[in-house]
Amino acid sequence: MGTTQAANGTGTATAPEPKYWHLRTVLVRALDSEFGTGEVLPNERDLSARFGVARATLRQALDQLELEGRLVRRRGIGTVVAAPRMGVPVSEASEGWPGTGRDSWRIVDAESAPAPASVCAALGLPADEAVHTVRRLRMMHGQVIGAETLYVPESVVPHVPAIFAKSSVADSSRARSVLRQLQRLELDGESRSVELGVAEEQQAQLLERPPGTPVLVLTTRYQAEGRTAALTVSTYRADTCRLTFGASGIVDVTPAAAEVRTAS
Hints:
This protein is an alpha+beta fold and 264 residues long. The chain has two domains: 19-81, Winged helix-like DNA-binding domain superfamily/Winged helix DNA-binding domain (Arc Repressor Mutant, subunit A, Orthogonal Bundle), CATH 1.10.10; 86-245, Chorismate lyase, CATH 3.40.1410. 25% of the residues lie in helices and 34% in strands. The chain has helices at residues 19-34, 44-51, 55-67, 117-123, 168-183, 201-207; strands spanning 3-7, 12-16, 71-74, 78-81, 86-89, 104-114, 130-140, 143-153, 189-198, 214-224, 227-237, 241-244. The protein has a six-stranded antiparallel beta sheet with strand order 6-7-8-11-10-9. Helix 1 (19-34) crosses helix 3 (55-67). The longest helix has 16 residues, at 19-34. It is elongated and about 65 Å long. Mean pLDDT is 80; it is low at 249-259. InterPro entries: Bact_HTH_transcr_reg, Chorismate_lyase_/UTRA_dom_sf, Tscrpt_reg_HTH_GntR, UTRA, WH-like_DNA-bd_sf, WH_DNA-bd_sf. It comes from Streptacidiphilus cavernicola. It holds the Pfam family GntR. This is GntR family transcriptional regulator. Residues 17-84 form the HTH gntR-type domain.
């Protein structure tokens, strides 16, 4: 078993490496050298015997590898080697205004309601001012890879029809109206920041993952007519996605506390 270096107030101290983490490292090597994408692993009893560990330790290691996106557990089949992460383009050329990309999106809901304080501040609005809010899922190869929440001030898209009956059809109609009006504006520029986070309960449900799953949080501000005209907070599955920004993509690196993190 290996050791890890842990810093303390006076220097460094050596701490034992957890058994499951050491096994996780061994399993990664085995996955890379012995198994291909989609291949089913031996059962837990055989793996425990092969690596000389308790089944509880093995489960911890397998749980960690599933969390990292290296393994997928499928009911009735077993534990399967996952496919490599999909590249999700987020450069200016592939994005533009929300709704103009070529990827498949599915509208979840849409409403006009007071925005959270952090969103109002990012949009330059008074606290609790109502904004149009559109929630969508980003699809790739038939799989949900991300959840997006779009915030647009009512003054930017003022002609959204009033819809009093709450339904999926009404939500879709409101969302499409907001997106169409945004696309009529001349986009002056965009700014993006990305950080690592964890999926809260609502996000996890949309992403079809358990709460606490690692996610990549991409915040985009859209500029038009001399102001921030829209804000999106996109949450991508870190186990299956890697964000690709291309030659023109610029990512800001800032402390997490300084970023807008409202996507619920």
